[in-house]
Specification:
This protein is of the alpha/beta class and 210 residues long. It has a single domain (5-208), classed as Rossmann fold (3-Layer(aba) Sandwich), CATH 3.40.50. 53% of the residues lie in helices and 13% in strands. The chain is built from nine helices and six strands, in the order βαβαααβααβααβαβ. The protein has helices spanning 16-27, 42-47, 49-73, 76-79, 90-98, 101-115, 131-141, 151-168, 186-196; strands spanning 5-10, 30-32, 82-84, 123-128, 172-176, 204-208. Strands 2-3-1-4-5-6 form a six-stranded parallel β-sheet, sandwiched between helices. β5 (172-176), α9 (186-196) and β6 form a beta-alpha-beta unit. α3 packs antiparallel against α5 (90-98), α3 runs parallel beside α6 and α5 packs across α8.
């Protein structure tokens, strides 16, 4: 496996963290998890999105940048395998959904400055699951602030991710995660590890789980 920096992405409830933890264990890799719980605006955002969207996204931008920058300072990206449960571009994609146009344009300028200082992943694993599957996973993990997320919000996030991946031709392992069970079905995890063993070209590469 030739990749040194693997990022995993997908909608809310897609299984990003679970897969990241399993791949980190499988490859004995350094695990980088998003510290979303430290965002003081997260619960407030779900209660009042219009009022708290901008500070929410600014906090995420600053925290993700700090975490990614520390990887570069420690040279972890060049010395060991990294598995992360988010892509830094996630900042921009959620901001596109959550912010009005003027705030988004301002946010995009800040994002562009930060992103130029970071190293992008070698490959992206994108977990695509239908909204009913996402809602089931959200209910199962039982984070109180997530329980009232509307289907429409998840649809908009899904569309934003897929549009971005198609437009930018990122080297992507695109997984149909409709029936994904990476913890209890070893064959599902093997689809991922087998895909990572391939010498893939730029663009999307679609894989289904047995």
């Amino acid at each position: 496996m030739n990749y040194r920096y693997i990022a995993i992405e997908g909608n809310i409830g897609a299984g990003k963290t679970t897969l990241s933890q399993l791949l980190s264990k499988h490859y004995n890799a350094k695990l980088v998890l998003e510290e979303f719980a430290e965002n003081p605006f997260l619960t407030k955002f779900y209660e009042n999105p219009k009022q708290y969207a901008f500070p929410l996204e600014l906090f995420f931008l600053a925290e993700r940048f700090k975490q990614q920058q520390e990887l570069i300072k420690k040279n972890d990206l060049f010395q060991e395998l990294i598995v992360s449960d988010y892509l830094f571009t996630k900042c921009l994609l959620f901001a596109k959904v959550n912010l009005p146009d003027e705030e988004y344009r301002l946010y995009q300028k800040m994002f562009d400055v930060f992103s130029q200082q970071l190293t992008p992943p070698d490959i992206l694993i994108y977990l695509h699951a239908p909204v009913n599957k996402l809602q089931g996973n959200i209910k199962k993990r039982n984070r109180k602030f997530e329980q009232a997320i509307p289907d429409d919000y998840l649809f908009r996030i899904q569309e934003t991710y897929t549009s971005y991946i198609k437009q930018h031709q990122i080297k992507t392992i695109y997984i149909d995660a409709s029936n994904a069970d990476f913890i209890y079905n070893e064959a599902h995890l093997k689809v991922i590890t087998d895909a990572l063993d391939k010498d893939l070209e730029q663009g999307q590469h679609y894989f289904t789980l047995p």
